Request: fold
Amino acid sequence: MRPDVVTFWHGPLDALRLTCLRSQVAAGHKVTVYSFDPLPGLPDGVGNAEAEAILPHAFSEKLRPPQPDGSWRDWTILQFSDFFRMRLMAERAGLWLDADVLLLKPVEIDLTKPYFAWERPRQLGNSVLYLPSDDAIVLAFESLIEQEELTPDWLALRHRLTFALRRLRGGSRRLSDIRVAIYGPAALTALARRTGELHHALPKKSFYAVHAEPKLFFDPSDFSALIGDPGIIGLHISPKGRGSQPPIPGSLYAWAAERFGSP
Reply:
């Protein structure tokens, strides 16, 4: 079936994300962006829902204290979203797509099975994610959310050693400080391996053909193979600070902005 698409955003949306949201609507999906504050200027067909009902804003303080003005700092947004997408799975909200996933065609899923793809040879990506609400991965995160220290039992040995050494040296006692993606792709991969679900993973090119090489999206190039490959469903883009820059003529971004519209 063609699921509803859901995501979370904190702060203003740049032109790239707005283009990607338009592509998700153009593919025929109902799209909802969850946020703590209203998001003005959302594309037609994109709804805005209250994030507090899914995961309270106060949960962020388990990750790290806010700035003196109350704003989030460092990696808080990224790590909060790792938990938020799992809460959406528990709520049966739909298919998670990062706001910087450009869809080239509709996503069809089986609601009884996990849906994700390899981001690199030994790691799953969580930018595109669906899990049934009773999946063991979702239940593991639901249990973790209840903890104060947010220390999962699926940590890799190298992360356990890094954390132990940091504590011995008087460093941060919060696991969230040792690695930005500690609750993201690494966690999803470890849990999928533990639960025997890795075989559900789609090939890397399904969604991550340009993920590690943003120049393939932002710089002029011959991108015909990317948009013509039937195995590529969408493109997760790592903007690297280029999300607000205007598209360069001859680039895949320029093609996407023309096809799906841009501010």
